[in-house]
Amino acid sequence: MTNSDTAPPAPATMTADEYASIAQSITDEIGKVIVGQADLVRVVVIAMLSEGHVLLEGVPGLGKTQLLKTLSEVIDLQFSRIQFTPDLMPADVLGTQVLQEQEGGRREFRFQPGPVFGNLILADEVNRATPKTQSAMLEAMQERSVTVAGETRALPRPFLVMATQNPLEMEGTYPLPEAQLDRFMLKAMVPFPPAEDLVAIVERTTGTTSVNLNTIADGPTLSRMIDLTRQVPVASHLVRHAVDLVAGTHPTHETAPDQVKRYVRFGASPRGAQAIILAAKAAALLDGRPNVSTADIRAMAVPALRHRVVLGYEATADGHGPDDIVAALLAAVPEPDAGLRGAP
Considering the chain, what is the average pLDDT of its residues? Predict the structure, then answer.
C-alpha cells in the first residue's frame, strides 16, 4: 500500500539533478523492504530508466519477486503479474477472442486483453513455462505490440518486462530460448545475502512492523526520465569501445581472447552493444554526471553480455560460466586511449 494515491505531478522538463534525485528516492523506498542487494537494485533501476527488460536469476527465497513487487508500488504504473507454470498457454498471456452477445441477440467476437497489456509486467519464474508460451512474449518484448487473430495491437508505454527465473539445475525449469534471452536488456544474478543482511531480513519479516511505501513517480514522470536517458551524449570512442567488447564475444573475431575462442559457441548480438550504451547513459545520470565515462561502459558490460554469450560443453566441463568469459573479455580489450577520453 502507498501513503498517497497519486504521485506528484511531473515537471514539463526534467534536469539531470531532478533525474538523479527521483532515482535516489526510488532506491531509498525500495530499501525500506529490500535489505542490502545494492548492486541488484541498481541494475533493476537502470533497466527501468532505459525502458529495458531485466531478468533476475537466483535460487528461490532471495527476494527476487519481492523486489519487483516493491518497485511496482513505488512507481504508479499499471502492474500485471504473470505466474509462469508448465500449463500456462499463450492466450493466458496475450489475451483471446471472446464470443459476446450484444443487444438484439447478435453475437460477435471481441478481444479480451491478457495481463501483458500493462506497463510493468512481472513475469514470475519465467523459465517454468513451456517453449510455446515463451514464444508468446517475443513480439511483446521487442516490438511492444502483440498480434492475435491477425490484428496487431500496441502495448501501453512505458512497457517493461521484469522477469525472475530459477537456475536451470532446479526441478521443473526450461531453458529460455536465445531469442528471448536476447530481448532482455540486462541480466542480474541474485546472490545469497551475507549473515548481517540475513539477520536484518529475518527480523523484518518475522515481526509485526509493516512498511508503508510512498509513490515516487508516475507514468509521465518515468517517460520523461526515459527520454532524458536517451539524450545523454556518448563520445564516439566509447561507442566503439562497446562495439569492440561485443565483437570480442565472437570466437571467430580476430580480437577475441583465448577463453572466448575456446569456450564460446555464439557471441552477443548487436542488442548487446545497444544495451551497454543505454545502461551506461542511465548509470551516468544516476551518479549525477552529464555524460558517459569508460567506467560506465565497462561496468555495464557484465549485465548486458552475460546472457548473450552461448557457451559450449567445454566451458561447463572446465567450470567456466558466462561471467568468467566477460571478465576475460574485459581484461583482453584495452580501455580507450587516455587522449581520447577527453574527446567530445
Answer: 85
